[in-house]
Predict the 3D structure of the following.
Amino acid sequence: MCTKQPKKMLIINILDILKKYTDANHRLSQSDILKLLNEKYGMDVNRKSIRPNIMDLIEFGYDINYREVKRKENEVMLTDFYMDRNFTDEELRILIDSILFSKYIPYAQCRALIKKLEGLSNEYFPYKTRHIMNLPENMPENKDLFYTLSVLDEAIAKKKKVIFNYNEYGVDKKLHYRLRSDGKPAEYVVNPYQMVATNGRYYLICNYDKYDSVSNYRIDRITNIRYTDEDAKPKEKVKGLENGFDLPRHMAEHVYMFSGESATVVFKAEKKIISSIIDWFGRDISFFDETEDMVSVSVYVNLQAMRYWVMQYSSHIKVLGPQSFVETVKADLEEIYYKYNVEK
């Protein structure tokens, strides 16, 4: 039995009932609300007190819907109360799926976030997500992720440099500091510009202080971060960002978020993978020399990332240029051939 609550809590409890137990598919009459007040909150109130409290909530700005039913002449009864929500169940499901299947949010924080999102709906919504799960062993172990994001947000806003340690997994499946030549943890000083999520990972787009090019770091591999009082290098002084930061173009150019040189690459592809090509590189590409089954493609892309992409789609494409990159691809393929056909 619930502890009996004071009458001044009536309007709060009615609001709580509407949030928890109603939506367009689950509506409550005044009698239903009376019953829930008694069962869930230990309140025994007069039916006539329901309507004025709901009207007050509507006046306060809550989006509560109802239906009017005529009973007698000049008498209208209100029923079928329900509350509209900021997010539909489908929208919440998309948000939860994106969190649940992320590759950078630690398991405990993932579950806590999902619980908060479920709280934005009513008691019926969690049943729609109980069949979805991700195993704890598939989740990253960096518990500092949200703190790292907070520091980076502040550093980017204030245009300050940050210092951090960077980690890599060992054969023990645990994160370990990347080390300097003397065996001590390496510290990275970078100028942070943007955080992006791509391919299920979260990255920091920045400039490593020693160089003039763009660098990308996995945020879930960053630990012990702190920002400094030193001003960050202006983006205009970083190679590739001289004309400002075009995020969609940067993401299309760096399909695997590798750093290094970018160039225009031309390749011939089977037309059946055109959808995959656009998925990876976006629409800022050129098609030409189309035949019934093949088409040539020109794309401006990070060369290191392109090497990996070519390996993924090697049976469907042939690189045509530039010649230096063609030679790089040939060397990669010869190394693979050697490993599988010569090396013991």
In short: The radius of gyration is 29 Å. The chain has four domains: 7-83, 89-138, 145-244, 262-341.
